[in-house]
Design a protein that fits this description.
Layout: E1 3-5, E2 12-14, E3 17-19, H1 33-45, E4 50-52, H2 61-70, E5 79-84, H3 100-114, E6 119-124, H4 133-146, E7 149-155, H5 159-172, E8 177-181, H6 195-201, E9 205-206, H7 238-254, H8 258-267, E10 276-278, H9 282-289, H10 298-308, H11 316-320, H12 329-339
Parallel strand pairs: 3-4, 3-10, 4-5, 5-6, 6-7, 7-8, 8-9
Antiparallel strand pairs: 1-2
Helix pairs in contact: 1-9, 2-3, 5-6, 7-8, 7-10
GO cellular component, one term: cytosol
Keywords: Oxidoreductase
Protein name: Aldo/keto reductase
Length: 340
């Protein structure tokens, strides 16, 4: 794999990130430790160095497995990202949320499970709509100054709050968010309305989770695999099936897997994007790694885009309306005059 800079930083990470939510079987599914080790070996052997986990994945077992693995590896080779926010125990009312107390406690617990002195990238996992953003930013900056965290990032948070946070951080001289993790795939393109344009503006790398729509875009549900996704899920409805069939058609034309096409589509969308590819089987990772050698033509991109596009709403669709020329003063007002 090639390496890319993560956001507005000098941190070099592999062009695919390994998602480890399935490392462990505490939630009734996933990969055991031996299989998880094999997956990480394969990933590292292909040049992968970017690992993504969280304090709550498999009730902490994901972090423990990674910690056991890294204990016998070159720790500095890997860029390790984890998250805080979600409740990982029942000890106190502040064992969840974005507050500083939970942040500090959660990081200390993650460091123990990961058997490391520092976390390369710490994500706020999900916005709690309670904690002031300046409390979050100051806490993250303190952890960075202490050397326990190297970079700050954010996940599953409204675009306006992320924008407010990075603007405040720039003003105060605090560490800014360098990456944004959100659900994004051909089945979930709504981040194109606000989140992705915001990330581009601030030079943030987008690290999509569920880039294959929970496996739906591989075509497995069309082939009879019921999986863990509920039938009424938007990953298993008429729209998702229609989109997946188009992806499969393109894949057949190119002689590659549907998953490769779905991943590469997002990597060619004109913004810094590093998909998080989860795997509980070695075969899944091996197939995902083939994505890095695939380039989609303009025709294929157009075909997939037309099949999966979502309304941008206002003002996105307004900006795209025919005859509106944002960069042409006269053209814009010609349109206004016609309307009036």
């Amino acid at each position: 794999m090639k390496y890319k800079l993560l956001g507005r930083s000098g941190l070099k990470v592999s062009e695919l990130c390994l998602g480890t939510m399935g490392f462990g079987t505490d939630n009734g599914w996933g990969a055991d430790a031996a299989t998880s080790f094999d997956i990480m070996d394969e990933f590292a052997g292909a040049g992968g160095n970017f690992l993504d986990t969280a304090n709550v994945y498999q009730k902490g077992t994901s972090e423990r497995i990674i910690g056991d693995y890294l204990a016998n590896q070159d720790r500095d080779y890997f860029v390790l990202a984890t998250k805080y926010t979600l409740k990982d125990n029942q000890t106190n009312p502040n064992a969840s949320g974005n507050n500083r107390k939970n942040m500090m406690r959660s990081v200390e617990e993650s460091l123990k499970r990961l058997k490391t002195d520092f976390i390369d990238v710490l994500y706020l996992h999900i916005w709690d709509d309670i904690t002031p953003i300046d409390e979050v930013l100051r806490g993250l900056d303190d952890l960075i100054r202490q050397g326990k965290v190297t970079y700050a990032a954010i996940s599953d948070t409204p675009a306006w709050m992320v924008a407010k946070g990075n603007t405040l951080a720039e003003l105060m001289g605090w560490s800014q968010f360098i990456a944004l993790q959100v659900e994004y795939s051909l089945l979930q393109r709504t981040p194109e309305r606000e989140l992705i344009p915001m990330a581009k503006h601030f030079g943030m790398t987008v690290t999509p989770w569920a880039p294959l729509g929970g496996g739906a875009l591989t075509g497995k549900y069309l082939k009879g695999d019921t999986g863990r996704v509920k039938p009424e899920s938007n990953r298993r409805n008429e729209n998702s099936e229609r989109i997946t069939k188009v992806v499969m058609e393109v894949a057949d034309e190119l002689g590659v897997s549907a998953g490769n096409v779905a991943l590469q589509w997002m990597r060619q969308q004109g913004f810094s994007c590093i998909p998080i590819v989860g795997a509980t089987k070695l075969s899944q990772l091996k197939d995902n790694l083939k994505t890095t050698s695939l380039i989609l033509s303009d025709e294929h991109l157009k075909k997939i885009d037309e099949a999966s596009a979502v309304p941008l709403g206002f003002p996105g669709d307004f900006f795209k309306e025919e005859n509106v020329r944002i960069n042409s003063f006269g053209g814009f007002y010609d349109r206004v005059e016609k309307r009036s």
